[in-house]
């Protein structure tokens, strides 16, 4: 089950379409869907989590906590809407596109993809692009 929670003024206007897409992404990776919670927040909220739980004193767009057991993926994905908006401007893409990239990024981590090394990051970006294309096909 994919849940959307809001700790800021932001709300998704297409929750059902996003949830359906993310479920399809999970299936496409031969995984089963557990409980995935997306928490939309602002920079301050996510910064506190970054400092408290990861000991990183930086702003970030997404932090995911992975509770996957075996083939069933589960976790909490915290998304700073402010960072996503800034990143969309920096990367010259729409807010909607950047938001979907961040949402699928969390799921891909749960599927086992990493982004710490250069090679891992290249694979992660490739998977993001592949999965973003799935959203357009389904709509």
From TrEMBL:
GO CC field: cytoplasm
Cofactor detail note: Binds 1 zinc ion.
Source superkingdom: Bacteria
Lipid metabolism listed as a keyword: no
Class of this enzyme: hydrolase
Methyltransferase among keywords: no
Family annotation (Pfam families): YbeY
Chief location: cytoplasm
Positions bound to Zn(2+): 105, 109, 115
Compartments (UniProt record): Cytoplasm
Entry keywords, A to Z: Cytoplasm, Endonuclease, Hydrolase, Metal-binding, Nuclease, Ribosome biogenesis, rRNA processing, Zinc
Cofactor(s) the protein requires to work: Zn(2+)
GO annotation, biological process: rRNA processing
EC number: 3.1.-.-
A GO molecular-function annotation: RNA endonuclease activity
Functional summary from the UniProt entry: Single strand-specific metallo-endoribonuclease involved in late-stage 70S ribosome quality control and in maturation of the 3' terminus of the 16S rRNA.
NCBIfam families: rRNA maturation RNase YbeY
Record-stated family: Belongs to the endoribonuclease YbeY family.
Protein name, per record: Endoribonuclease YbeY
Organism: Flavobacterium laiguense
